[in-house]
Specification:
Length: about 210
């Protein structure tokens, strides 16, 4: 199989036809997206949902209350996500940042400046920064995660984070809705097919 850049849009349509629209990210506010993007590191989404629910019940899904929250209480509320001490500390840190810097002002920065700003915060790497940019700031940055990397390997494309991101962004129109939907579809497909070892029925291998 020889993968061509234009196959990326073909893959999108294959996934969309199979799985339907995904409407990500499941969050009520931009700050909830930020919190979810921090909590999802090295865990599964149901654990994040539990933690988000706990934070909501305690009125901690706003920057200032979260920044000022008791660290031990916070650790308890996010314990279900694993690495809870580190995550609680980092959540307080990013909440402090958004207490001191108005979210609308931060998100209206030019994309590359915004990305550097996010990457300068503790615990924010490429994937977390780009999730915040795409789903909270609604700017066109394609999110590459472990699912995407594996899927691309399956169609014969190898690359590091920035190389794969460059491939997607150079092959697709810079459309926030498209990037959001595509990333969500990759995650959903990976759970439904790759995770269940349904490689014999892989739609990508059959169609490319
Ligand atoms: S279903 Fe299997 S072959 Fe297809 S993308 Fe997933 S891991 Fe790769």
């Amino acid at each position: 199989m020889r993968f061509r850049n234009k196959d990326l849009i073909k893959v999108y349509h294959i996934l969309r036809e199979e799985l339907g629209p995904q409407y990500w990210w499941p969050a009520e506010t931009a700050f909830e997206v930020v919190v979810g993007a921090m909590l999802i590191q090295q865990t599964k989404w149901p654990n994040v949902e539990k933690a988000i629910c706990n934070l909501k019940e305690h009125g901690l899904l706003e920057p200032k209350p979260l920044a000022e929250s008791d660290l031990l209480l916070l650790e308890d509320l996010v314990r279900c996500c694993g690495f809870y001490r580190q995550k609680a500390f980092r959540l307080k840190n990013i909440a402090s940042y958004f207490t001191e810097n108005k979210m609308d002002d931060v998100f209206s920065l030019p994309l590359d400046v915004l990305r550097q700003r996010m990457l300068s915060l503790k615990g924010v790497g490429n994937e977390t920064a780009d999730s915040i940019i795409l789903y909270a700031a609604h700017k066109p940055r394609f999110v590459i995660d472990a699912y995407t990397t594996r899927m691309m390997q399956c169609v014969g494309v190898e690359g590091n984070y920035m190389q794969l991101q460059g491939l997607f962004e150079n092959s697709l129109p810079a459309d926030v809705g498209l990037y959001q939907e595509y990333h969500a579809l990759i995650v959903e497909y990976s759970k439904s097919y790759c995770g269940k070892k349904k490689c014999d029925a892989c739609l990508l291998k059959q169609s490319l």
